[in-house]
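Message: I would value a second opinion on how I read folds in token form. Give me a protein, with the fold worked out from its sequence. Write it directly below this note and I will take it from there.
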Amino acid sequence: MANKSLGAAKSAKNDEFYTQFSDIQKEIDAYLEFDPDVFRGKVVYCNCDDPFESNFFKYFVLKFNDLGIKKLITTSYKPSPIAGSEVQLSLNFQEVEILNVNGIKEAGRPKENANRFIITEIGDYNDDGQFNLEDTASQLKENKNNEWAQLKGDSQYPAGDFRSDECIELLKQSDIVVTNPPFSLFREYVAQLMDHNKKFLIIGNMNAITYREIFPLLKENKMWLGVTRQGTGSMWFQVGLNMPKKTGQRVDENGVRYQTIGNSAWFTNLDHGRRHQELSLMKTDDVIKFGTKKPFDKYDNYDAIEVSLVKHIPSDYSGVMGVPITFLGKYNPDQFEIVWLAAGNSYANMPPDLLEYVKFVPYVPGAEGAGQGVGVVNKKKVYARVLIKKRKGIK
């Protein structure tokens, strides 16, 4: 178990990317526009978030009353790479009375420990006419209608690990999970959310779309992409100063280090308006005339046409089309249906009823490394493709 805990800690250290407040607000605003009451009366759980550092905690605390949240729960992992450093959020929680792992009250912030915060009431505590994080700190100092305690962990997982028994018990109490989970544990994290039938809004690597555990959820409309940064922009995350220096980092005037992950994306099962916007497309003849300048290629190993750009999807084609995975950022389930994925070992996992879309052999001689689901055009592999089809009755 010691080696497993050590490996988990190392993984968590490399996975600590702190989301910026502006990115959180921009994404959540889109859900509130679609449904202003999406969080009203709900228990929101941020289970990968140290409140001293997390902008998810900061956002939901400041918006607690406006959103009508019933309860906010946050849990942090031990250890945190930027806890106690100059780059953490300044919440002024000095001399706060907390419950340690033995249930005994102690003063001061346990910088080295994993914590849980449970917020049930928040407001203008110091009567200065405005609500801010100082009010939150004041209320937590007195444990007024809120709770702050250390997490213990268990024999299998360290304190604060989302897989630990105490974190799972908190998960069971929640309605909506909103956080930036460890990218390296994304499969396991999503599986847990599905097992417990939770609503969620989380950040992951766009490449997760191709995972055999994730893609079926997208196909079955159990999960979809969020609104902003759908793998087409650079999302900047705050990282600890001990993060190895590499390409795609910058340090601001305050010495805070940021890392860009250009293919990051939001994943969710909360509805939003963008998901119901119909793609405006040209007919086949117009796509060829103004776009591709040639007819669509057909795959050697799929009964489908290759469409390399989303804007070139023909509106009048009724067969199967292979489109870039970025299509999922504009996917309207009322306009198209997802057939399957042409990538990696997807053929091996393809349900029997979908084999009609694949020709007799998935491997094409002469295309090195092809087969096993990878789309092939004229004996050359193409990038990962989502196989889609226009919904019947859609013109």
